[in-house]
Amino acid sequence: IFFFFNDTATTEIYTEQIVGSVRCVQETGSMKIFDLNQRVQLRDIENAHQGRIHAMVISSDSSKVITGGSDGKIRVRSLPEGDLLYEIEHDPSISTMTLTISQGGKYLFAEKRRSIYVYDLETKSLFQKIYEAHNNDEIKFLKMTSDDKNLISVTLSEIKIWSLPNLELKHTFWNRTINSMISFAITSDNKYLITGSYDGQIGVWSLEQRQLVYIEAKTRYFDTLASLSISNDNKLLVTGSGDGTVNLWDFNSRPSEELVKFTFEDAYQKLKDKMLKKI
Description:
Blueprint: E1 3-6, E2 11-14, H1 16-19, E3 22-26, E4 31-35, E5 40-45, E6 53-58, E7 64-69, E8 73-78, E9 84-89, E10 99-101, E11 107-112, E12 115-120, E13 125-130, E14 141-144, E15 150-154, E16 158-163, E17 168-174, E18 181-186, E19 192-197, E20 202-206, E21 211-216, E22 225-230, E23 236-241, E24 245-250, E25 257-263, H2 264-278
């Protein structure tokens, strides 16, 4: 299970499933690593970045954790030790950062406003860049498909599909229906892209048909869909709204059936209590 929490003070990422027995928690500029099996804290890394940590990814073999901060640096650390292996000077002028890593662990993808940068983690150097990959808006999300064949870049108004490893543009989804896409997920079978918007709408985009195939109208009256995630079996869609509610949906039903609704504060407190008991 991958949990992402945001508030004014901290950003926490729990990655129990991704890294097995290690839980990484990132706070403002610091990072903590926990062993969930032994229920002990392994490392408390102060000043992992100067300023906020905006992005965190973990290699598929769970040997490295990579963070991007508001200081413009990308830092690669060993797991579970947390030792700094090396850093990449990305761009100190940017205020946010999004990262994604190939399943093979060779390439790291980072955005710089409207451009895409590809770093070779073996040579620790810039491998390729696409200047002005998007013309209108800054890139909000970068995600790899699970088969390592495509990179998805998302702005408020468009989605682009890039083939790997040469980063050739395959297709552009022009968003003329949904108001500003701000959250994003990919189904594990790489068939659908799911977006959440400022006005609460959920959009489902088919990679095979290359078009928007469904809009969930029930969520139109919800607050901003700040986050969403889908289960590995592609049956359960979870959305988090700006009004503090979490909704669980049956993704395979059309229209989507709302299964559970609860407040974010209740869910956060219950989860936090559960995780604290483990340590």
